[in-house]
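Appendix B. Raw example, untouched.
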Amino acid sequence: MFKRPLALMAREGHACTYRCFIAFIGLFVAFSLLYFATHKDVQEAVHLLSSSLSTRLYPLYSADAYAQEAAYLQDGYLSSIEAEEELRRAGGQHQDSVSPVEQGNVSFDELQTSAVGASFNYASSDVLVFLHIQKTGGTTFERYLVRQLDLPVPCKCQPKRKRCLCSRPQDINSSRRSSWLFSRFSTGWNCGLHSDWTELVVSGCVDRYFDSREKGHSKRRYFITTFLREPVARFISEFRHVQRGATWQSSAHMCNGRSPTIEELPPCFEPSIGWTGVTLDDFMSCKSNLAFNRQTRMLADLTTVHCYNESAMPNELRRTVLVRSAKENLMKMAFFGLQEEMRKSQYLFEKTFGLRFNKPMVDMEPQTSPDEVSPEDRQRIADFNQLDMEIYHFAKEVFLRRFELARTGTSIPFDAFASFFRNSCAYYRDVGHVMSSGECASVPAFVFPSTLSMSTKNSHTLRQIVTVYNPYEFDLEYKVLSTAPALYSVQESVGRLKPQSLVDIVIRRNSSEEDGAGAACVDKFRVQVRKLTKPLLVGHSDIVVFVNGTASTSAGACEQQPSGRVDEVPKVASSSHRTTIARRDSATRFRSDQRSDGFHWLLMVVGAVCIVCLWTPYAEERTEAVPSWYPEWLRLTIPQKLVSAYVLGLLTVIVLQV
């Protein structure tokens, strides 16, 4: 009975070969998926490749962490590890070579150590660079730099001229055009109008400018500075400025060697007309308005997020990478001030650089009355500028701690921080003993912010981000504890921090029966850090969480532990971990289901049907050699055969996994 089909196949060698090829493709895909999912050598290769790719971008996490699958958490946040993996999968761009500005950059932390040497020396090759973010008090500070700085050879400012000549002492009477200051009132906008971190630092524009000006290349140290401002007040101030006629149309927004296209950055107004007299609603309705989260964008390295091409990667991933990059770059700066704290900013600048102003700065009063903008509009502005809000809270915590260190005269090196950040000794269940006074707080913890506000009526506030920073030259291990571990879940609650690095921790409040009442209460978190080489040297920093209230609200503990003890918070499984668990559970369920004879026979029947489908003639075969006993419904199309091959491949994977 098989003679006629076999003879037919022999006569149609090309058709048989085609069917074999389709079956081979299906099986090859199936075995390839199984091999890459289980083979240890492939996993190790992925680890090595991922670690090499991540060395330049974020040298914070171990190579093993990079091989995990990257996906979004159910609550919409990305872990630090997932963000980096997703960034690579999305094709995030980053310049392979470090620019001369980045190579010569001197951070605040490095200024405090003797390894760098003396502080800023305007008579040598040091350059002070000011990154001017709109409406943050930068104009006032830049004027003070060129007019009020007490130097042996001050800047020369002539009447009716916007720029001043800030030459080095040895070049004052020579033809060499060397300058120690790169700012609006000294060199002008040579890297673009209100150029950002990407234009100034990443592109190397500042270094190229001085090479051109000094007719040759020399090794320089760069001290980058900036000013920040409370985001809502800054946004309103920019809106008023645009309403009066400002547009900054000539800003190039250079990134990766080009300006954004019209599709990437659509204009909010007709350039020939301008935006004078714009209303607040119209100002906020333009989605491409660069006023939104301007401080974060100008501080971040935009090459890590495809510059201004927002469609190249998921929005949540883009926001996560921008915030992290902005925080890291802020910590790379030699100094940053706050517009609301001009006097303190002046004091910190003088202490950091060893320079003095001959005129005190005055704390700026808000030019826009709070009554001019309704509370509803102010809340809308805050919602639209969530990234800036997070950056500002982080910056304010860092600024106030630095100011206190400068004010109290504490020794500059970080090994002396314990005298200021003196934490009380406490029982630690994981240590198992009470530390002596000599061991207490030997490793101060740097955690920002120190307070969190959550509202059970607003689900967006129930997820908060806390940043842990390691300013030391050695690795740290951290752990997150809480007085109410049952009410919270923390992603990356335990981990390690490499020197001069930071990590963002997502704290999420779980729903509870008490939340429906809306009662005000207070919880506490403790971030405990320890030096890996000396595990008994423990420091900590406490975070107060106000639920349905503020610091001035009288509230009790939400779920206080007995005797004020703190417990470790359950760690949120990353999406990759949850996927692994789900696969493991699925395999377990499959093994139990497999005991059913009916399910076993179903697999065999489906597999046999797929094989038959692959060997039957396809619909296009209309030759006389095809026997009449073949029914029309067995003449399958090519897409149907490909589906059969795919299903057969899936069945093969299932059988081999079991």
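End of appendix B.
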